[in-house]
Design a protein that fits this description.
By secondary structure, this protein is α/β, with parallel strands linked by helices. The chain has two domains: 6-11 and 375-487, Golgi alpha-mannosidase II (Immunoglobulin-like, Sandwich); 22-369, TIM Barrel. The chain has ten helices and 25 strands. The chain has helices at 55-64, 110-120, 135-146, 152-159, 188-205, 226-235, 255-259, 262-282, 310-324, 359-368, and strands at residues 6-12, 16-20, 26-28, 68-71, 95-97, 102-104, 123-128, 170-173, 210-214, 241-248, 290-298, 330-336, 345-347, 353-355, 371-374, 377-379, 382-383, 391-392, 394-401, 406-413, 419-426, 431-439, 459-460, 470-475, 479-487. The strands form six sheets. Strands 3-4-7-8-9-10-11-12 form an eight-stranded parallel beta barrel, surrounded by six helices.
Length: 491
C-alpha cells in the first residue's frame, strides 16, 4: 500500500450529485438465525415488553434512526405464507423453513412487526413471496395491510385487532429470483412475466404503493446484467426500483485487498444504472428507474452470527460511502441485517445488547448524511492489490443539509499511515468546524463483546483550525472520520 501522507478534498456548493433521502439508511429484518427470535423478540428477557420485544434493542435501533426496514426476507420469503403469521398466535402453524433449514413458529408476523417498526420510528418495506406463491397472495397481502375495510382481507385484519390500515408504501416483488439457491428460482423471462402481472394486480388494489423488482443478487452472477435488463423489459412501466444485493468478506484476503472491495460496489451500481438506462432508451420511456440496494454488508458466509472487527467496520464504511455517492440513483438502502445476524446490534440470550463496530459509521451516516450529496473531488495516493488497481487511500463523501446549514464530510483512510488531508470548501459563506469524530484501533482485529462492549468506539477529537474556505486535518491510519461544519449565518 502507498505510504503517501498527503491528500486533498475539494467540494463546491453548486456541484450536487443528488439528494440522500432518509430511506438510504434503512435496514433489514429476516426470519434468519437470531435476528427475530432471540434478537428483536425474546419474551423471557428482563427488558421484554408485553409483546415480547426487547426494549434494550428498541433503544439501540432508535439511536440509529433507521427510516425503513425490509421484512420478512430475504431467502425466507420465497417459502413464506404470510397468512401463517397473522391472527391469534396460539392458532398459528409451525412450518418448515426450507431457506434456512429450521422450523418457523410464526410467533412474530406482519402485524407484530409493523407495531415494532412504529416503535423504533421506521416504515416497513414488505417483501412478497414470488417463489412458491404469486399474484393472488401478493394482492391479498396489500389488501390486508392497506385497505380500510369493507373487503375480505381488510376485514380479516380488523378482526385480528387492527382497525386502521398499516399503509405500507414499499413492497418487494420477491427476493433474489436469479439465484439457484432460491426456493422457486426462475429464469429472467419467467420471473419478469410473473413480476409484471403481480405488480399490476398489487397496484390495482392500492395505486399509491411503490414496487421493487429483483435485479441480480450480485455483480458476480453470470447472468448480470442481462438478467436485470430482461426483467426490466417486462416490468419497466409497472415498478419503481431495481433491487441490488452485495456482501463482502473473505478470510483469505489481506487488509489492502479487503479494504478495496467497496470499489466493486461502486462499479456494480454504475453497471446496474446502465442496464436501467438501456431499457429506458429501448422503450422510449420518460421514466427514470431508481435503485434499491436492499441487502449489503460485510459477511463471512460461514459465520452468520458473528462479531465484527475494526477492519470490518472500515470495509462497511467504504460501502456506505459508495451508497452516498450514488444518491442520485440509489434511493433505498437496507443494511442487512439489524440484530445478531450480520448486524450492527448484538445480543446475548438473557443478557445485554451492545453496539458492534459497524454500528457507529452507520449511525453517523444516518444522523449526518441526509441532504444534498456534493461531488467530492479527491486527490489521494493510491495502491494496487492483486485484484484492484489504483485504489485511493482516501475515500470520502460530503453531504450538505440546506435547511440546517450543516455540511458533513465522511472520510475513510484505507492506509496504515497517518494521512494529512487538505479540505477546501467553496460556495459557502464561511464554515465553522463544530465537531470532529474519528474511529480507529491499534488492532484491526479488535471487536466489541459482551464483556468489553466499548473496546472499539468513536471519539471526539479537538477541532482543528478552520479558516474560510478550508482546513487541514491529520487522519489516523486505518480510520473512519466525520467532520461536521456549520455554515455561518444559518441558525
Amino acid at each position: 500500500m502507498s505510504s503517501g501522507i498527503k491528500a486533498k478534498v475539494l467540494v463546491d456548493r453548486d456541484f450536487v450529485i443528488g439528494e440522500a433521502g432518509p430511506r438510504l439508511y434503512g435496514s433489514f429484518v429476516e426470519h434468519m438465525a437470531r435476528c427475530v427470535y432471540g434478537g428483536i423478540y425474546e419474551p423471557d428477557h428482563g427488558s421484554a415488553d408485553s409483546m415480547g420485544f426487547r426494549t434494550d434493542v428498541i433503544d439501540l435501533v432508535r439511536e440509529l434512526k433507521v427510516p425503513i426496514i425490509r421484512y420478512p426476507g430475504g431467502n425466507f420469503v420465497s417459502g413464506y405464507n404470510w397468512e401463517d403469521g397473522v391472527g391469534p398466535v396460539q392458532e398459528r402453524p409451525r412450518r418448515l423453513d426450507l431457506a434456512w433449514h429450521t422450523v418457523e413458529p410464526n410467533l412474530v408476523g406482519t402485524n407484530e412487526f409493523v407495531q415494532w417498526a412504529r416503535r423504533v420510528g421506521a416504515e416497513v418495506m414488505l417483501a412478497v413471496n414470488l417463489g412458491t406463491r404469486g399474484i393472488e397472495a401478493a394482492a391479498n397481502l396489500v389488501e390486508y395491510c392497506n385497505r380500510s375495510g369493507g373487503s375480505y382481507f381488510s376485514d380479516l385484519r380488523r378482526s385480528h385487532g387492527y382497525q386502521d390500515p398499516h399503509r405500507i408504501r414499499v413492497f418487494c416483488l420477491g427476493n433474489e429470483m436469479d439465484g439457484p439457491w432460491q426456493i422457486g428460482h426462475k429464469t429472467a423471462d419467467e420471473y419478469g412475466r410473473l413480476a409484471c402481472e403481480t405488480a399490476k394486480a398489487m397496484k390495482w388494489v392500492d395505486p399509491s404503493i411503490e414496487l421493487v423488482v429483483c435485479g441480480s443478487s450480485g455483480r458476480g452472477m453470470p447472468t448480470f446484467p442481462q438478467w436485470d435488463a430482461t426483467v426490466l423489459e417486462h416490468t419497466y412501466e409497472h415498478v419503481d426500483y431495481l433491487s441490488l444485493h452485495t456482501y463482502y468478506g473473505d478470510d483469505e484476503l489481506d487488509t489492502a485487498e479487503f479494504l478495496a472491495k467497496p470499489v466493486d460496489m461502486s462499479a456494480y451500481i454504475d453497471e446496474a444504472v446502465a442496464a436501467c438506462d438501456f431499457v429506458k432508451a429501448k422503450k422510449r420511456s420518460r421514466k427514470t428507474m431508481y435503485l434499491s440496494f436492499d441487502e449489503w454488508n460485510v459477511w463471512f458466509r460461514h459465520r452468520t452470527d458473528d462479531l465484527y472487527t475494526m477492519e470490518d467496520a472500515l470495509v462497511f464504511s467504504g460501502m456506505l460511502l459508495s451508497l452516498i455517492n450514488h444518491a442520485d440513483r440509489v434511493k433505498i438502502g437496507c443494511q442487512a441485517q439489524l440484530v445478531n445476524a450480520i448486524a450492527p446490534i448484538y445480543t446475548a440470550k438473557g443478557g445485554r445488547a451492545w453496539r458492534q463496530t459497524i454500528y457507529y459509521p452507520f449511525q453517523h451516516a444516518s444522523h449526518y448524511g441526509r441532504g444534498n450529496v456534493l461531488r467530492a473531488l479527491i486527490t489521494s495516493p493510491a495502491y494496487d492489490s492483486c485484484k484492484h488497481e489504483g485504489v485511493p487511500v482516501l475515500d470520502g463523501a460530503v453531504v450538505h443539509d440546506p435547511a440546517s446549514g450543516e455540511l458533513t464530510a465522511f472520510l475513510l483512510n484505507r492506509g496504515s499511515e497517518p494521512l494529512s488531508v487538505e479540505v477546501q470548501i467553496r460556495g459557502f459563506d464561511g464554515c465553522l468546524l463544530v465537531e470532529r469524530i474519528t474511529m480507529a484501533a491499534d488492532d484491526l482485529r479488535a471487536k466489541n463483546t459482551e464483556d468489553c462492549p466499548c473496546r472499539v468506539i468513536p471519539s471526539r477529537v479537538q477541532t482543528a483550525e478552520c479558516s474560510d474556505g478550508g482546513m487541514t486535518v491529520l487522519l489516523r491510519g486505518y480510520s473512519w472520520n466525520v467532520l461536521r461544519f456549520s455554515e455561518r449565518g444559518v441558525a
